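Deviation from plan, reported transparently: iron/sulfur cluster complex.
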Amino acid sequence: MVNRQKWFNLTVSCEHEKHTVPIFRACAGSRTVPLFKTLMSSYCKNDCKFCAMRCGRRTVRNRWEPMEFAKVAYKLWKMRKIEGVFLSSSVERDPDFTVERQIEAIENLRNMGFTEYVHMRVMPGTSKELIKRAAEISDRIGINIELPNKGHYEDMKLYLNFVQDILKRLRWAAKEVERLQKEDKCKAGLNSQIIVGASDETDKEIIEISDWLYHKLKAQRVYYSRFTPIKNTPLENKKPENPWREYRLYQTSFLLRDYSFHLKDFVFNDNDRLDLRHDPKFLIAEKEELMVDINSEGFKELIKIPGIGLKTAQKILESRPIRDIRTLKSLGVILKRASPFIEVNGIHQSKLTRWIN
Ligand code: SF4
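Because the crystal trials were delayed, the predicted structure below was used instead.
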């Protein structure tokens, strides 16, 4: 587990005022991209049990004025300190009031000539017109699910209607994204985020909603954020979630999105949890008694083998026939993980000792 995403602060002077702003290094493939990542407002009218911004909790709160945000972001971009912005918010007053201010901020920024990446998280319960506008001016749009279903919303005091405020809005956003992509007007993608371990949700519930997001709504990414207790919240004494749970969920997420796996494929224990000791792809292969001929099966079968990723599978197809272990290794196959599931020309190579040399 490598945490490649890091925060740092930058101080920038804008119109005689100094602003210290948070910069987030986001992963984009093999490189990191600095984003100006902030909340439009940290004033919130809601009191979700797990959240640092819940109303009534004593904390430092701020809000950006839309033009002030745009000027600071533009200056950071011109100074080559950022390559994009990520704008979310707490729910100040109501969802539409909040999202209107976010949109105004991004419109100001675009009008100044900012052409880089914009990721906007809009509020649950936002009206259709505002979701449409947010998608038009962003590269990515998201609505946080936070918890995987209605039952957990009640448990965590999220006074939202899960079906109306979350699922319906996600469907609207997905439709907008699809329309814009078809018209080649923008590269907008949909994403969402789930808190892991705040409630007593199971991995199966999280993977079920992730499956729906990826396969029905064609989401670009589902993020998982492991719960850590925050002082002066009702959950301050709850244990932080095990980082391995977040990591395994990310693995399942990529298997859903990139490898065409579905909820039904995963292996759960009696409590509908993943086995944190093992790679979920390995457990699927073991359950299905997977055996794939490296020289004759297609791409879809090759990527089911643990230790073989998308790029490696493509390289195998291009390098056939594969005649020795060295070639397989040089193509990027992790032999230790892959070998129990590989056969060559009909011969199972459990230890790869019978390989044709
Ligand atoms: S999760 Fe969102 S709506 Fe709930 S208290 Fe935090 S900022 Fe407000």
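The chain has a mean pLDDT of 92. We consider this an acceptable substitute for the interim report.
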